[in-house]
Amino acid sequence: MLSIKELYVSVEGQEILKGINLEVKPGEVHALMGPNGSGKSTLANVLAGKEEYEVTHGEVTYQGEELLEMAPEDRAKSGLFLSFQYPVEIPGVPMVNFLKTAVNEHRKHKGGKPLTAGEFLKLMREKKELVEMDTQLTNRSVNEGFSGGEKKKNEIFQMALLEPKLAILDETDSGLDIDALKIVANGVNALKSENNSTIVVTHYQRLLDYIVPDYVHVLYDGRIVKTAGKELAMALEEKGYDWIKQENGN
Amino acid sequence: MEEQDKILNEVTQGEYKYGFVTDIETEIIEKGLNEDVIRLISSKKEEPEFMLDFRLKAFHQWQKMEMPDWAYLKIPPIDFQAISYYAAPKQKPKYESLDEVDPELLETFNKLGIPLEEQKQLAGVAVDAVVDSVSVKTTFKETLAEKGIIFCSFSEAVQEHPDLVKKYLGTAVPSTDNFFGALNSAVFSDGSFCYIPKGVKCPMELSTYFRINAANTGQFERTLIVADEDSYVSYLEGCTAPMRDENQLHAAIVEIIALDRAEVKYSTVQNWYPGDKNGKGGIYNFVTKRGICRGESSKISWTQVETGSAITWKYPSCILIGDNSVGEFNSVAVTNNHQQADTGTKMIHIGKNTKSTIISKGISAGLSDNSYRGLVKVLPNAVNARNFSQCDSLLLGDTCGAHTFPYIEVGNKSSIVEHEATTSKIGEDQIFYCNQRGISTEDAIGMIVNGYAKEVLNKLPMEFAVEAQKLLQISLEGSVG
Questions:
Q1: pTM for the full model?
Q2: B143: in domain
Q3: Chain A residues touching residue B453 (CB < 8 angstroms)
């Protein structure tokens, strides 16, 4: 599914990622943890194709293709989905239009016909239930006036509509109360299959109680310094990140 | 990026190779402007005495006037003696069929969703005399005639309805109003005239497309709309297709007069050739548009989508004389590359309980400058007058400019005037968010800009609104990325 080799990334001349290696196979759930500033969000954004990040070295293969050569919208249409840490508001653009355009772009990419308004509304109703999305929200402009929790739910709702192969959830748990967290996690779990993969970026072990990872990686100072099973998340929860820092000479 | 540049070129560049060729057999008088030329124009058009007087008065005043320099525009010097002020507008088809027309132009038309027959007219293709558009026109004229509505070319109105023309001409924009207004009054070639009788609601949108003399009304166009008591009309001007013209200077006038309880909606989509990417060429558009709400409870609303011209100088205004009368101004102005626009409105409150609303949405891209200039003036007698103004600017990239010049003068204590303004930049974050959902940058910009301008676009008649949406997107293609 995804293979990252020796990836180095800089932002405005400052090196953030310093040699990332990561293999994600179909059906796997990987958790990416680490203290603030370790480069987790940078990795998520680089994979999605955000512009201001400069890849200075390394390669990324996604479904056999050079991911870094692809335009962001092509990555998206090939099934790479990023659930944003801070979803963006787009005033004046109705959710429904935005989503319909997105869904139809995906369908076009796969050689399918665009959905009619009726078909799309039906699809939307189905997927809304999955994340217990308030009907009112889809009548508003994209993310405008949504609460923090609503924005995160909205991300998972979009994920449900677009049915990605590789979903990257960038701190989807931040700002969620426990009920919302469960809803979001249930949504993600419902979409899981043996063909698609998930990378969960998080600070806390809490989300991993609900979305159980196959692997936990600890990112520190731009490198993956530890990889283990889900028990690693428990250890981090207990001991914090200090022991990781000490092990790595800080 | 290359692809985007290509599309942008298609839409905005190129010389005057598309249509609008003046027939070489056309009768053209010598270049230059003097009293003899004015007399000649008037006599060629076989005008009554009052028209000649009107023109001469304007001309004499114009001679004493200076070109205005208060706008936030860099206007190259214009040699008014180097222009020919009269050409009998006879247009000869340039092509026999659409197959001969530049395919790139046709692609632009298709992007805008312009019907085939209309495409032919715009591109200068001979239109078959039996095609639908002609029969539509005939039916259209009959329907209007039944209601007593007069809708014809200005020249025709001068001949057929001189009393009406004499009564209302120059009552909203006096012949000596301003430099460009006076010039137009002196030399205007043709335009449209529209009269809606008492109590009549015009059953259809009146558009210049259906006007008999639509083909080539020239650079000094004049429109006069009179809505008699309790009448209603919605009038559409312009076209979303890129309009090219050999004449660089355009100075038009639109006058609207609304009597008691009459309502006039005037919508414009302006897409004159804006010049090439380097700022070469392009139309200079100096327009005077003004409506008078003369009667009580009358209403005039201006809605404009401005995407074209190298220079735009335009302030559609309302003079609210009648008590309880209402004025509205809704505008989207887009500037890209080297375009400059200084546009806005004037709302003059004279009657009691008069109300006005101003919604202006400026969008700047490239190296362009986009200014809103507006005056809200409440006279002492206009008790309980109300105005609400909202002026928003949206910037694409960091090489363009947006400016707001609001002037507010309130002469009494019972009136309320509100002004809101925002400036925002189209976020890379917003575009990336759309990209991440599979939406291309071009489509994302279209979506975001249309979302921003929605409030104004919603005021346009339905079919116009759809075209205008596409136009906004095309006008900004290649401006971010």
A1: 0.79
A2: yes
A3: 92
